[in-house]
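Lab channel / #folding
Pinned by the channel admin:
"Please post every new chain as: sequence first, then the structure tokens as a reply. Keep commentary short and put observations after the output so the thread stays searchable."

First post following the new format, from NK:
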Amino acid sequence: MKILIADDDPQLVRALRITLAAHGYDVVAAPDGAAAIALAAKERPEIVMLDLGMPRLDGVAVIHALRGWTSVPIIVVSGRTGSADKVEALDAGADDFVTKPFQIDELLARLRALSRRAVSASDDPVVAFADVAIDLAAKAVTRGGTRVHLTPTEWQILEFLARHPGSLVTRQTLLTDIWGTEQVTDTGYLRLYLSQLRKKLEADPANPVHLITEAGMGYRLVLDA
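Reply from TO:
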């Protein structure tokens, strides 16, 4: 099971990496909030463990960003002990909260509980809407049975939306996943590529019903419209 650790304490991350690997976890780590979002999009971990006090983006902001497109179990491991911090993290979408310092046996027990809640990926690699079929395994798109040519970037955007159908995917999440953290404020790229995707996949590109823009927030792939 893959777990993402987001924490700016390298010694703690090193210790957790060794301990969790010994218990069968595949560990990836991010040193700050922005990197955590990018790594979550790239690696698709089954559990996310994060601190609240991280540089660039704090833990609560990361939780909000992740909850825009994934239901992956999130456990907060933080030195903040105030009830307000715990409530804020849980309200943002965290599943559990462990206070530093912690006993490793307790943390492992919490992780086992979260792993039982982790949702496995769908066995069906094809996502369909209207006369469009998106084959995630073959990385191919057909419309009315005819292959649709997509550029690599168009495919990346469509694939991300197709893996989270019906969910709001924030602009920042898409930008971070595709172009990296240095481009997270430039949404002109997304408008251009979404327009191209609509021309190729929507019956009426000027009035899309499947590739939807959520004003000021991001995008959503609606399958049943």
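NK: The first strand starts at residue 2 and ends at 6.
TO: also worth noting, Helices lie at 10-22, 33-43, 59-67, 83-92, 104-117, 152-162, 171-179, 188-201.
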